[in-house]
């Protein structure tokens, strides 16, 4: 037996040493084009029952065996003026509840606007601190970077936790725009509960204005607010070449007009640059697919969440790399965006405090704490950024930076 093993090993070594020089096969397929298979081909035949991709349709929102949602109403308001305060009421008679919101100002290059940046919020006591501190920051709108309720961390994805989350954030969400990015906790994909339609609770509850930007699904879209063009991407929907998201983003970047909206902000849940051991490199395939586009487009900031800590990068790119040239190290690049990971809202899963060492050169500041950030756009050239740490009941600015616009004044060396 031992002798046989040794012989096998020697043979393998021999094959390996022959192979080291590399071989280019001379085999070629016949270059003959073939027509499409006919529509009645066996491989196109629908399966019995209800399991073909084009089948399906609307159903009332229920989840698992136990949960049935209340009636969820959506109203689309059209013909609104910019920069105008609107009052509205929900319900009637003695049950009516009154709210108000202010629409964003008309897009223009020097229109100031202040965004709150929140991710991975959940509904813990920390989450409550984060929301309280955000309210104290006095921003105009929230870019929410995904992972809302964490209902799926409860038995059977207890969707009552979606209800409670909505009630929790109502004190801000009912009064100003929250721009939704989807995270993995919006998937709610649970075949063991009979729930096989990803994003079912999310899409039933949080409509997005995707049609207005020519998108075909609620998960990726754009909005223009004041002097910002905000692009929302979906980490958990296909983004490879020729997919609907890929095709949409390619067209969308051409529609960005930096003379009207100088600030190009991109939201995506799973980070492309992050030096925490948690979720390490999960965003890599999407970075490979889209980073060059964003650097070419001179995006200002890419926001991500997912990793439950805070991190801000320098302006780096890794677009020179291809799989053969060995140029695998991110380099400083004045055209590149700053990457901000803001997955520190304070959800039930706790902190990601597992940083990798040494800290990579691209990482400007990182801290495993909960908090939120604000991005205050002053005009076409300047924006002031702050990260607010939750610190035992008060908020503390623990990181800040001035960003200059990549299109109008690409001077900052952040
Ligand atoms: C959540 O925060 C609000 C605002 O600070 C506060 O009124 C409320 O008591 C807090 N709730 C809990 C459960 O901590
Ligand atoms: C910096 O980004 C630009 C724009 O995408 C790109 O053409 C250039 O190659 C990048 N520079 C380096 C050193 O990677
Ligand atoms: C833009 O805002 C910055 C920061 O407030 C200020 O220093 C700069 O002068 C402003 N630029 C213009 C053209 O007003
Ligand atoms: Fe996540």
Automatic annotation (TrEMBL):
Q: Does the keyword Iron apply?
A: yes
UniProt GO molecular function: acid phosphatase activity; metal ion binding
Q: Which reaction does it catalyse?
A: a phosphate monoester + H2O = an alcohol + phosphate
Q: Which InterPro entries match?
A: Calcineurin-like_PHP, Metallo-depent_PP-like, MPP_PAP, PAPs-like, PAPs_C, PAPs_N, Purple_acid_Pase-like_N
Q: Where is the signal peptide?
A: 1-21
EC number(s) recorded for this UniProt protein: 3.1.3.2
Q: Which residues form the Calcineurin-like phosphoesterase domain?
A: 114-310
Domain Purple acid phosphatase C-terminal, first and last residues per copy = 336-396
Which family does the UniProt entry place this protein in?
A: Belongs to the metallophosphoesterase superfamily. Purple acid phosphatase family.
Q: Which PANTHER family match?
A: ACID PHOSPHATASE RELATED, PURPLE ACID PHOSPHATASE
Name of the protein in its database record:
Purple acid phosphatase
Its source organism is Oryza brachyantha (malo sina)
